[in-house]
Design goal:
single chain, 812 residues, alpha/beta, TIM Barrel, Rossmann fold, Immunoglobulin-like, six-stranded mixed β-sheet, four-stranded mixed β-sheet, 33% helix, globular
């Protein structure tokens, strides 16, 4: 061990308490041994360090920091160098604000467009997500701060996220849901990783030996620290045994007492405990050393400019009929939309950043030389009808040459803790759009949303510029594209289906009871649409430019491809060259094609450049569940290069040697997986894919400590059902008001066990067991445990604190 001498000086009580958070964001310090604390902070797209008392969901005021575009936005840049620059800025600001561990980036796979937290995640494709995450991590960690990619793993829904079991086969787990994390660890060099709330195949992620030991530590040789999501620890002993190092946020001393008791009764070995302590000590001491050279301030204007450039390089031009864009100088424009006045620039939840400044289209448009016929909010973002606003907008639109319509998803549509119920934009926004096109058919839609949406109204717009959630400088970034100062170069990092019913997980998302069954398997996003020939509104990788690019002279060899890209238009611009690989008539079923490489290249008008994309260890591999390892199937592969998954410009064949003749599947048992038509997979076929029976996920009998508060609908106690009704009524009123109450959503979905993990030691697991007994109808017995446990917990806490302060606890 790296810190054996220091570990030998620690008491058992000190070791145990060291593996839990002392406050909402800080680890324990052990002053007598010179062990400092470190500070963690949310930060996928900006630092959220709270000025006063910390709270998980950011209700208390945060210190100002640059609000960069969200991960879902910057993924559309397909630019790893840009990701690294943003990471460096995030790391710099974290260092200045005395934050040592930055909790991000988020790189869970966008299994369904309805996941409420998709705005924090990069892509539906694990290769793109992993490469972008690795670039962020390299940038963050270059500033002496640890990045903490999250949520490991298979966290694809917000509904009951803390009490849900993801059921999926090993190949899908490896190829889709772990590949991004593998790239983040191996190529990004991540020094921390955050586990997810959910179970993976029946075992909570934070105590999952297969995830944390077999794969993360042994296969990927991860040497950093594992941190729980906030309140995400289920069984702290099992977590330590799986080498999860830090239980957050602040479970109090009850968790530490459990560790001490486990060591003393032999259920946890001192070696297991010391290994976890050593990992965390190494991180704390390393970060403390780097902390001494931290900068005193960051350049706000420079970071604001970076945020603007990131937004402009990530915006996607989806439509440009009659070349209406870029807008002509001197034309008359009407600016319509509530988002033009109060921009929708980031998602809602624990990632919310207090920006150092905030641009709006209303104010920024004054700088671009257009005449204004009017600026109107046009609609209420809550979805309520307002005829006065509507008339004001129509009057302004009728007087303009072009209408700039700022619209999209509101705050209640995308929020941590709650999934979307549909893929539509609020109806009052669409009704206004349909009314405006009757008085002016030259409408340029400027979209704000962090996930894909249905677009049956797209014919009402001559042009559509999608800015996603573009951060604090998004307004000027969009206007620079509209004016032609910037040539749009963003490409979609996710598919846009025509309708939600077309999505691969439509029948399986979200889970209706405890299990979330990933019956679609590998066929996520474009892997499904492309293989099954399902028409989409806009395909993965799509985006328009103000110039044109041609692809010629594709060369393929055993090391990769070379292709000549020429800008044949009259404007400078950037193209995203995408390499896809497929194996026709494969023995092992697979998608039609899969992204295996990309490069963003900037070319001046008329310029040509050879682009090289190398093959790597992921180009031809698949996970063989029979040999339990990565294998390559022998065959003649199609190597394709193009501008999107549906716009393949050139292709060549390449003979590839295989690594085994031992294949994993019987095609007769997996008929629909071999066709890609996976919207109605039967139980027998899913079980054949899993390799075992489908686990029972029904709720039955009494509720347990791992059931969520919202499941008190099933409670035997009338009091518990009454509390459930009150919470549900409050939640519905909150949704109707259009402002997310993050604390309420968290309380609604929290499992009972997490109450003991997030109350600073006021509640012990013994008390939680009493609460559950009350919920199950055993009022007096349960209340006896709660009340008796409260006083017993206070006494035990005082005794533990006394031993800590004396430094004379048990040695073993």
């Amino acid at each position: 061990m790296k810190n054996q001498e220091l570990i030998n000086k620690m008491t058992l009580e000190e070791k145990a308490v060291f593996l839990s958070g002392r406050s909402e964001w800080e680890t324990w310090e052990i002053s007598r041994l010179g062990i400092p604390s470190v500070f963690c902070s949310d930060g996928p797209h900006g630092i959220r360090k709270q000025a006063g008392a910390g709270d998980h969901l950011g209700l208390n005021e945060s210190l100002p920091a640059t609000c960069f575009p969200t991960a879902a936005t910057i993924a559309n840049s397909w630019d790893e160098e840009l990701g690294k620059e943003v990471g460096e800025a995030l790391g710099k600001e974290a260092s200045v604000l005395d934050v040592q561990v930055l909790l991000g980036p988020g790189l869970n796979i966008k299994r369904s467009p309805l996941c409420g937290r998709n705005f924090e995640y990069f892509s539906e494709d694990p290769y793109l997500a992993g490469k972008m995450a690795a670039s962020y991590i390299r940038g963050i960690q270059s500033q002496g701060v640890y990045a903490c990619p999250k949520h490991f793993a298979v966290n694809s829904q917000e509904l009951r996220r803390m009490a849900m079991n993801a059921v999926l086969d090993e190949r899908t787990l490896r190829e889709i849901y772990l590949t991004g994390f593998e790239i983040a660890v191996k190529e990004g060099g991540a020094k921390a990783i955050m586990t997810s709330y959910n179970q993976v195949n029946g075992v909570y992620a934070n105590e999952n030996q297969h995830l944390l030991q077999d794969i993360l530590r042994k296969e990927w040789v991860f040497d950093g620290i594992v941190i729980t999501d906030w309140g995400g620890s289920n069984d702290h002993i099992k977590g330590v045994q799986a080498r999860s190092n830090l239980e957050m946020p602040t479970p109090g001393l009850d968790s530490a007492r459990q560790i001490v008791a486990a060591v003393q009764d032999g259920s946890l070995t001192m070696e297991e405990l010391d290994t976890c302590v050593d990992d965390l000590l190494d991180a704390v001491l390393t970060l403390n050393e780097k902390r001494r050279s931290k900068a005193e301030k960051f350049q706000e204007e420079r970071h604001h400019e970076l945020a603007r450039r990131a937004a402009s390089e990530s915006a996607v031009l989806l439509k440009n009929s009659d070349h209406i864009l870029p807008l002509k100088a001197g034309c008359t424009v009407a600016v319509i939309g509530d988002f033009a006045v109060e921009p929708r620039y980031q998602g809602a939840g624990s990632s919310m950043v207090k920006p150092t400044s905030l641009e709006t289209v209303e104010k920024a448009i004054q700088n671009y030389g257009w005449k204004l016929s009017g600026i109107s909010r046009g609609y209420k973002r809550t979805g309520d009808a307002d005829e006065v606003l509507k008339k004001e907008a129509l009057d302004a639109a009728a007087k303009a040459d072009v209408v700039l319509y700022c619209f999209g998803l509101d705050e209640m549509s995308e929020v941590e803790g709650m999934d979307r119920s549909h893929m539509r934009i609020p109806q009052n926004q669409i009704e206004l759009l349909q009314a405006m096109v009757q008085v002016n058919d030259k409408i340029v839609g400027i979209l704000s949303a962090g996930a894909s949406i249905e677009m049956p109204w797209h014919t009402c717009c001559k042009a559509i510029l999608h800015g996603y959630l573009s951060g604090q400088a998004g307004a000027s970034a969009m206007l620079e594209i509209l004016s032609g100062k910037v040539n749009p170069s963003g490409r979609l990092a996710e598919s846009y289906p025509v309708r939600y019913e077309d999505t691969p997980a439509f029948r399986y998302f979200p889970s209706t009871e405890r299990n979330s069954e990933y019956r679609e398997g590998l066929y996520v996003g474009y892997r499904y649409y492309d293989t099954s020939s399902v028409r989409v509104q806009y395909p993965f990788g799509f985006g328009l430019s103000y110039t044109e690019f041609t692809y010629t002279d594709l060369q393929v060899d055993k090391d990769g491809i070379r292709v000549l890209i020429t800008n044949t238009g009259d404007r400078d611009g950037a193209e995203v060259v995408q390499m896809y690989v497929g194996l026709p008539n494969a023995i092992v079923f697979r998608p039609e094609k899969e992204l295996k490489g990309f490069r963003k290249v900037f070319l001046k008008a008329g310029e040509s450049r050879e682009v090289r994309i190398p093959f790597d260890d992921k180009t031809f591999r698949y996970w063989n569940v029979r040999t339990n390892r990565w294998e390559v199937e022998m065959g003649t592969y199609q190597i394709m290069v193009g501008a999107s998954v549906s716009d393949i410009r050139l292709a060549k064949e390449l003979e590839v040697d295989g690594t085994t003749s031992e294949y994993p599947y019987n095609p007769a048992e997996l008929q629909y997986y071999y066709t890609g038509i996976i919207q109605q997979i039967s139980d027998p076929e899913f079980e054949a894919l899993l390799g075992h029976p489908i686990p029972d996920g029904k709720w039955s009998g009494e509720l347990g400590i791992n059931d969520a508060v919202c499941q008190m609908y099933y409670a035997k106690s009338s009091l518990a059902r009454f509390i459930y009704k009150i919470l549900t009524d409050r939640k519905l009123k909150n949704e109707a008001a259009g402002k997310p109450d993050l604390n309420l959503l968290f309380q609604y979905n929290i499992p009972f066990r997490a109450i003991a993990k997030m109350t600073g030691g006021m509640v012990s697991m013994h008390m939680v067991n009493g609460v559950v007994e009350v919920v199950n109808g055993h009022f007096f017995r349960g209340m006896g445990k709660v009340i008796g446990g409260f006083f017993a917990n206070l006494r035990a806490n005082r005794a533990y604190e006394k031993r800590l302060s004396s430094g004379k606890g048990a040695k073993k």
